[in-house]
Amino acid sequence: MSAPTGPAGPATDPESLRARAVDALLRARERTAGLTDCVDDGELVAQHSPLMSPLVWDLAHIGNQEELWLLRAVAGRDAMRPGIDSLYDAFEHPRSERPSLPLLAPAEARGYAADVRGRALDVLDRSPLTGTPLLDAAFAFGMVAQHEQQHDETMLITHQLRRGPVVLTAPPPPRPAAATTVDLPREVLVPGGPFTMGTSTEPWALDNERPAHHRFVPAFHIDTVPVSNGAYLRFMEDGGYTDERWWAPEGWAQIRKHELSAPLFWRREGGQWLRRHFGVVEPVPEDEPVLHVSWYEADAYARWAGRRLPTEAEWEKAARHDPVSGRSLRYPWGDGDPTQELANLGQRHLRPAPVGAYAAGVSPLGVRQLIGDVWEWTSSDFLPYPGFAAFPYREYSEVFFGSAHKVLRGGSFAVDAVACRGTFRNWDLPVRRQIFAGFRTARDAPDTRGVPGAVVS
User: How sure is the predictor about 179, in pLDDT bands with cuts at 50, 70 and 90?
Assistant: First the structure.
């Protein structure tokens, strides 16, 4: 049963918010169980890559954060296991060190997380959902559900990195109907002018999405769909990885140092390109969005194509701006929550849909697949919005602001709807390749203010 939504987004009365929070928490825990119950204890405690934590660390960390925020901060209860807080503090121990810590064993971790969840649901049932910043609009409960889903995405990345038998399966995503792609233009013209970026009204928006503010964005063209594997192959075949002209200096140094010549998990064999995808080796599907490329690879492709990556503001305007009403929507298709007809989210499928899919989720300007499928690198550094205020703690966003991290937008097939919206901001180091990231490109355009939704071939 889904939580109630109104015509302009989620309902905000306490009982609707309570139902929404219960649904989000239960959905997250079901996914967590699916990602941890499918492997044995040996695989749970193993570190499958130095880039990632053991799965059992993520499991107990999810429970520990839920206890910290819902049982201690909201309900004022004493710590259940105070001795473990430092073990599951993501800032105290880097991922490479976590296997050597005295972590809870798998059975203990499951029991602890389940115990916390039972008590947290009791707190939710009794809370007025108003009166403090953490309780208002059930924010703390929504934040915890988003946190768990973000770690579920992290655990899914670990599954992609692990070696061993196939343990995760899912049906393929829908293919686009030919009638909806036959005349699909290569790019869309986004008129220049102001729009509202960010949000001050989304109940569970995180601090870096706030506040809403006006941005002027000059006219630009943006790809109608994400860059496909087939298009990226043409960059590779044209010597993209061996031509220094296309690369930022740091990116060129990375590909030379690590001898990179293709996206992560690709290999050339028998005259064709193959990829390893959740334990299955398959020919690279040319019609899917390219996946597992770093910011440097995305930037190099864009330069090779005579284009560039969109800025974060350009991406959000393409996704949210309605030129008819002048309003910024919650999602490209409007204000209603995502459904399986609108976007590829929630690990419903274990891969992005072919480019051009989800025609029902198109933005008012005609851009497709802006939500779900693949995270999209932008050219922008991760910086605070004007009027930013850290909440409920500095370490969520503020400590990451600066030029070291690049912004990604739009979510992926691995992201749940509770942690994906038109304002949601992700960020990572530009060298990252294991994340479910792709991109689309953009280019400057003449000023076309007053020309709503002009489309070019």
Answer: confident
